[in-house]
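Give me structure tokens for this 390-residue protein.
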Amino acid sequence: MSGTSAVIPAAGRGERFGRGSNKVFAEVAGKPILAHTLLAFEKCRMIDDIVLVVGKHEIIDARKIADTYGISKLRAVVAGGNHRQDSVENGLAVLDPSTHIVAVHDGARPLVRPETIVATIRAAEEFEAAVAAVPVIDTIKSADSDGFVASTLDRSNLWSIQTPQTFDKNLLESAYSEARKTGFYATDDAALVERLGHRVKLVMGCYDNIKITTPLDQDFMETRLNSMQINSMLRTGFGYDIHRFEEGRKLVLGGVEFPGEVGLEGHSDADVILHAIADALLGAAVLGDIGRHFPNTDPKYRGISSLVLLEHTAKLIADAGWKVANVDATLVAERPKIADKASEMQEKIAASLGVAPDQVSIKATTAEKLGDIGAGAGAACYAVAAIFRS
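Here you go.
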């Protein structure tokens, strides 16, 4: 069942690129340009399947790229036409019948961001037609036939249009059908929809979502992608938690119970170490905090083991495409001493996260009798976590 499909036209000849063959097969930052583009849509959770359009003689090579880079959402690779518009129409013809929303994106725009794809889909769900675009920042002038300035345009209402351009499927098919009947060709899909009298919503895109047209664009992309890959391969997060001691509760730290010790106040088992680690992991993946995922107003979390919460956190991290590299936590408390149980904590935490014990560091210090922690009123924990792309 498909709800949202991407049609990616990539059959252009790319004369200005100067390589004598389709530019999307040129390699940049260790991958073909086409692979970068396909991966952007593969990783977008709102995209259900992908239709790729290339030259007839490029279909085998395109499939090889998709297989090499694990593009599991690829529904079809079809031959393009003489113009981009013809190629998109060929892609529309093989969409899953259940498709409701179609995102059309240039194969030579590999720097599209997931949030841009999602934003156009959301807008198309509401308005039936939406395009990624950015406000024009340069001064724009029109020229006369002799090459002199005719006028200076008011750029306050001017936008530079990008892709994805995302539409209700029925609307887009109607626009293409009408264009075919009249022999009308446009430079983008939105213009066809506009001809039907339908309004197209502008969605803020990103200035680096450029279309690779010249070798200079390729150089920019190389630099930008290398930077993005470094930033996306490894993330770090910081977590902090604090709880006061409360008589009548058992003390659990790092998933290990300390019999005979006064416990910590909290909705769950109040494991201050695990809460700090969970927050660090969620922060690294930009997934909010434990209060968002495990609110203390929800009865189902009352008294729950924080090891369960940590396991769920690990699943959230994995679902977002990350793996845990390591965690490092420091307990700050006057009591208890944890040295004898630190290795047991490491093993329990590692099991919850699906990593080896040597990827987990647990240590402790005191507050040197300073403040409420130093007075023995409670315990705090600081944690850092590193995650990497899986």
